[in-house]
Automatic annotation (TrEMBL):
It catalyses: 2 D-sedoheptulose 7-phosphate = D-glycero-alpha-D-manno-heptose 7-phosphate + D-glycero-beta-D-manno-heptose 7-phosphate. Gene3D superfamilies: Glucose-6-phosphate isomerase like protein, domain 1. Belongs to the SIS family. GmhA subfamily. It is an enzyme of class 5 (isomerase). This is Phosphoheptose isomerase. It comes from Acidicapsa dinghuensis.
Length: 205
């Protein structure tokens, strides 16, 4: 007979496991800073940031693209960022004509340019369509960032920057991905606002 849920085994354990995993991100601050600077530089050049993933990672892609196009915390102009998970006509036509593994790669071929950044998100690191997207990006000299779980999976050798969360628990990995994504958005926005203020000050002088 299955055990009924109780507060400690669900909520208590979830909070403890989350906090323990988040503490490990302290050791990846340098990597996250490198990714943030890569993204900020791309936006200053007029390039764009792409995101892709499946399921919850698709939701994360859309969430983080929206933070950049809209705003995170501060008023500033909209910045170019696209989640490759949202256009159902493209997704279904490409899946029908070429197979589901091509749904993101085909969009990178169509929309991506040298100097852009692609962030592929997969808790396992093995999502075939995300792997294909990273391959397509590298062929076009687009910088590749992989958000994965422990080990990085098949995405690891295709990533210029690998943010691998030290867990294989899908829920915990997704929570860490979102925290990292929000911190990247914060850096990008602070950088952009500071640069705009410096330009205004320079023009006044």
């Amino acid at each position: 007979m299955a055990n009924h849920p109780d507060r400690e085994s669900v909520f208590g354990k979830g909070i403890v496991d989350h906090l323990e995993l988040i503490q490990t991100l302290h050791h990846q601050q340098e990597l996250l800073e490198e990714i943030a600077k890569l993204m900020a530089a791309a936006l200053h050049r007029g390039n764009q940031i792409f995101w892709c993933g499946n399921g919850g990672s698709a939701g994360d892609s859309q969430h983080l693209a929206a933070e950049i196009v809209g705003r995170f915390r501060r008023e500033r102009r909209g910045l170019p960022s696209i989640a490759l998970t949202t256009d159902t006509s493209i997704l279904t036509s490409v899946a029908n004509d070429y197979g589901y593994e091509a749904v993101f790669a085909r969009q990178i071929e169509a929309l991506g340019n040298e100097g852009d950044v692609l962030v592929g998100i997969s808790t396992s690191g093995n999502s075939h369509n995300v792997v294909c997207a990273l391959q397509a990006a590298r062929a076009r000299n687009i910088a590749t960032v992989a958000f994965t779980g422990e080990g990085g999976g098949r995405m690891a050798p295709l990533a210029d920057y690998l943010f691998a969360v030290q867990s294989r628990d899908t829920a915990r990995v997704q929570e860490a991905h979102m925290l990292a994504g929000h911190m990247l958005c914060d850096w990008i926005e602070l950088d952009w606002v500071a640069s705009e203020a410096a330009r205004v000050e320079s023009a006044i002088k």
